[in-house]
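Title: Prediction job returns without error message
Component: structure pipeline
Severity: low
Priority: P3
Assignee: unassigned

Description:
Job completed but the reporter wants confirmation the result is attached to the right record. Sequence as submitted:
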Amino acid sequence: MRIASACLIGLVFAVSAVSKLRDFDGFARSAPSLVPAWPGRARLLAIVTTALEALVPLLLVAPPTTSYGFGLAAVLLAAFTTAIAAAIRRGRRATCRCFGPSSAPLGPRHLVRNGVLFSCAALGGLSPGGLPPAAGVAVAAATGLVGAVLIVFLDDIVDLFGRNP
């Protein structure tokens, strides 16, 4: 479970950080829509968010720091979920810029997605370390990869099937 969770969380956070860096100005401009109390500090918030997201996969790679990577991921996901829930509650129609520019408005599916990711981070952090046999590592890594792809492309998958909650 730990390897699959590390692959899933690490890949999701790596894609998120890279996509934010590719359109950093757009991401920084969108930050106040989620955290309106920080309008003058949007760029700082964007820098810190992107840096912490980039740190998660780095921490997950090395066994001595894996638990810290899961912990940081859980803290970030809790903060993101809180910001998204507050934006939805306020009626703000902010778009999801989690994985780059998007026209998908934040909604309940993003809360569910973050809940699933938080659960994976928590389970990965609580799972014992150590490596299973090579075949087990390959299956766990493949499972994490498939899960990460599904999470990253969630908005596209939902749009493909015509439902946009």
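Comment from assignee: result matches the submitted record. The chain has a mean pLDDT of 83.
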